[in-house]
Amino acid sequence: MKALQIKGYGDVESNLAFNNIENPSIKENQVLIEIFAASTNPIDYKIIEGLLKQVIKLNFPTGIGYDLSGIVRETGKSVKGFKVGDEVFSSVPQESRSSFAEFIAVDENMVCLKPKNLNFEEAASLPMVGLTTIQAFKRGNLKAGDRILIHAGSGGIGSFAIQYAKNIGAYVYTTTGTANVGWVKELGADRVIDYKTENYLDLVKDVDFVYDTLGEQFTIDAFKVIKVGGKVISLIGPVDDETAKEFGLNLIARIYLYFKRIKLTGKIKEKSAYYKLISMKPNSEDLEIIKKLVEENKVKSIIDKIFPFSESVNALLYQKSGRAKGKIIIKMK
Ligand SMILES: NC(=O)c1ccc[n+]([C@@H]2O[C@H](COP(=O)([O-])OP(=O)(O)OC[C@H]3O[C@@H](n4cnc5c(N)ncnc54)[C@H](OP(=O)(O)O)[C@@H]3O)[C@@H](O)[C@H]2O)c1
């Protein structure tokens, strides 16, 4: 089969190749999926550039891509929930990363039937952003009546998170650039802050929850806008000790991270706040939640551009531009 693979660390343009490799063989608990569409995520280019070397070890050549939709072509002996011909969607864990390919073997417990009202491209847009947000809001116990700031409402994560937070019944502040204000408002956000003309720090006060999708100074400043006892769930900020353990980091690495987040620790204490860096865990139960939300028309797929498989590198370069309006799709079929 044809698969896009990472050749080595470095820039996106020169470190990817389309290789002809063996079709994956499945274990007892896995299904073989013929991939019809995949979606890109910022982690894809970050891995190539070596930005995650400390937590993700690669042996080259290696696969790329997490999100996918497609059709089950084979099932392992112990698979109970799927049959050949089922239309499914999934996000795979680190060790199975390789959805920019024609086929993939996925554990049954990380697969879900595709929402009935979505085509393959739409279904492939949802797993990573949906799973991450469901797990983040669950961890931060977002509930009806809470006020939440969601940074980058026009991104892959933000465009899902706004819809999901409104569904939970929260009041949503979000930030984006001028060109995106109109359509982001239509997703349901209560107050869209145009970061080019407004400063969110002047407008957002004492919120219950900040969903930090931007990191660095945005993580630190989250503690200026949350209420005492509020929650900051980050996708990209400093690694807390619990998450460091989940990453399997040794004591020395964890001590290093302890000192690296010392400024943040001070901010957390000042606000008696809760802070957590979320690391998404693929699973079919949370995919079922996404499926239900979509089938009940409570969440829709937001797609910016669709690239043919042969133009995957351009899809990744567009992702890296940081200007995506929703999700970027790679279409295999
Ligand atoms: N920890 C995890 O498990 C996990 C899972 C998924 C994602 N992530 C991380 O979460 C982050 C967000 O992912 P994503 O898929 O949403 O990224 P994305 O789709 O690439 O985000 C692009 C969007 O960000 C907006 N943006 C950029 N700078 C902004 C700013 N200063 N203020 C407001 N909006 C801004 C852009 O709008 P404009 O063009 O208007 O600027 C654009 O629409 C990434 O770093 C990703 O790696 C982590």
From TrEMBL:
Matches recorded under InterPro entries: ADH-like_N, ER, GroES-like_sf, NAD(P)-bd_dom_sf, Quin_OxRdtase/zeta-crystal_CS, YIM1/Zinc_Alcohol_DH_Fams
Alphabetic keyword roster: Oxidoreductase
Residues annotated as domain Enoyl reductase (ER): 10-330
Keyword set includes Oxidoreductase: yes
Keyword Oxidoreductase (UniProt): yes
PANTHER family: ALCOHOL DEHYDROGENASE RELATED (PTHR11695), RETICULON-4-INTERACTING PROTEIN 1, MITOCHONDRIAL (PTHR11695:SF294)
Protein name: NADP-dependent oxidoreductase
Species of provenance: Kaistella gelatinilytica
Taxonomic path: Bacteria, Pseudomonadati, Bacteroidota, Flavobacteriia, Flavobacteriales
